[in-house]
Amino acid sequence: MTQIIEQNSKTIAKKKSFIKLLINFIIKNPTGFIGMILVSVSVFTALFANIIMPFDPFKADLVSRLVPPSWADEAGKSVYFLGGDQLGRDLLSRIMYGARISLIVSIGGVCIALTLGTILGILAGYFGKWFDDIIMRLGDIQLAFPFMLLAIVIMSVLGTGIEKIIIILGLTYWVNFARLIRGEILSLKEQEYIQAAKAIGGTHFVIIFKHVLPNIAGPIIVLATMCIAEFILLEASLTFLGLGVDPTIPSWGGMLSDSRNYITTAWWTAVFPGLAIMLTVLGFNLLGDWIRDRLDPNSK
């Protein structure tokens, strides 16, 4: 009996300690906590959209066309919490499904840009010489073209599609990662521990992956987080213009585009998808700022 009481007291003490640590974290890092909550909600919604969606996001019901947001009808039946769109589809379900599209596009684009930028940044910063000249000049040429204009031209030729948006985002934003990694490596490769690794016969592969990349992982993570937020906005912009995700697939940009003709009579068709974009982008930006502050040695 005594052992059970002691175990219960220890469990209660651990719970109180966890709650205290959580409260202290929230007080000291309010923006980071808000960013984590917003990002967690977006990721959870994207992962489990098929389970938590109250209605089929593709099913049209003209009887419910442009119905306003409501919690229950007079008969107590299920209704559209955020209202219906111009075809009578549940706006909440479509926003949940759209979270999946936005995160797939943004994370996929960041993965391509990060991989390509890391490889080229290492070649330019670590090996230098003609590698640096060629890669940086290619980067200058890339930056000379406005992204939106370049994306519109490419999507007009190739057509719409999620995979095409991901490729375009990755191939146009590699220069951001390459320039960052190049700059970080240039400041690191003359450090004493890098010179010591070379002196004892360390290969380029070992030096890069054991000594260089771990020391520049912080800025790369921050940039990747910020790029996810930016890619969400770019995907929504392209889809809004009719050059992004296929119109038959629920996406936040597509919902905003569809709501243009009904914004004065059915405000919810534009407000709620816009809020979804705003809160998700805000979450990733706040999270990126918090990570940057945590990894910045000057702020400690």
What does this structure look like?
The chain has 300 residues and is an all-alpha fold. The chain has a single domain, classed as MetI-like (MetI-like fold, Orthogonal Bundle). It is 72% helix and 0% strand. The chain is flat.
- What structural category characterises the helix and strand content? mainly alpha
Can you identify the CATH class? Mainly Alpha
CATH superfamily (homologous) name: MetI-like
Provide the gyration radius in Å.
24 Å
On the 0-100 scale, what is the average pLDDT? 84
Assembly state (oligomeric) = single chain
Can I get a quick summary?
It is built from twelve helices and no strands. It has 300 residues and is mostly helical. Helix 10 packs antiparallel against helix 12 (268-295).
Notable characteristics:
300 residues; mainly alpha; MetI-like fold; 12 helices; flat
List the helices and strands and how they pair.
Elements: H1 2-28, H2 30-47, H3 49-52, H4 91-127, H5 129-144, H6 147-158, H7 162-188, H8 192-199, H9 204-212, H10 217-240, H11 252-258, H12 268-295
Helix pairs in contact: 1-2, 2-4, 2-12, 4-5, 4-7, 4-10, 4-12, 5-7, 6-7, 7-10, 8-9, 10-11, 10-12, 11-12
